[in-house]
Design goal:
CATH topology: GIY-YIG endonuclease
Order of helices and strands: EEHHEHHH
Helix content: 40-55%
Number of strands: 3
Strand content: 15-25%
Radius of gyration: 13 Å
Structural class: alpha+beta
Strand order of the largest sheet: 2-1-3
CATH superfamily: GIY-YIG endonuclease
Shape: globular
Number of helices: 5
Oligomer: single chain
Number of domains: 1
C-alpha cells in the first residue's frame, strides 16, 4: 500500500518552518537538502526534517497539510516539541 507523508522542515531550532506533503519522503527531503527544489526551502535554507506523519490516504495527507499550514506558529512549534524536543534532523534516522 502506498504511503503519504506530511512533513515539517526547519532552518534551525525555532527557525523558519516549511510544511509539505509527499509520497516519497526520503527522495523529497533529499531534494530539499540539496537545493534541487527551487522556491522557499532553497531561498531560506530550510533543510532540517523536524517532524513527519504518515498515512495511506492521499486525500488525508493533503487535508492535513492544508490544516497545519493554517495553524499559528505556536501550534506548529508545540507539535514539533512534543515529538522531537531536541529538534534533531529526523532524515538521518530514516536513512538507517
Amino acid at each position: 500500500m502506498k504511503q503519504y507523508y506530511v512533513y515539517i522542515l526547519a532552518s534551525k531550532r525555532n527557525g523558519t518552518l516549511y510544511i509539505g506533503v509527499t509520497s516519497d519522503l526520503l527522495k523529497r527531503i533529499y531534494e530539499h537538502k540539496n537545493d534541487l527544489v527551487d522556491g522557499f526551502t532553497k531561498e531560506y535554507r530550510v533543510h532540517r526534517l523536524v517532524y513527519y506523519e504518515e498515512t495511506d490516504d492521499a486525500n488525508s495527507a493533503i487535508l492535513r497539510e492544508k490544516q497545519m499550514k493554517k495553524w499559528n506558529r505556536q501550534w506548529k512549534m508545540e507539535l514539533i516539541e512534543k515529538f522531537n524536543p531536541e529538534w534533531k534532523d529526523l532524515y538521518k534516522d530514516l536513512l538507517g
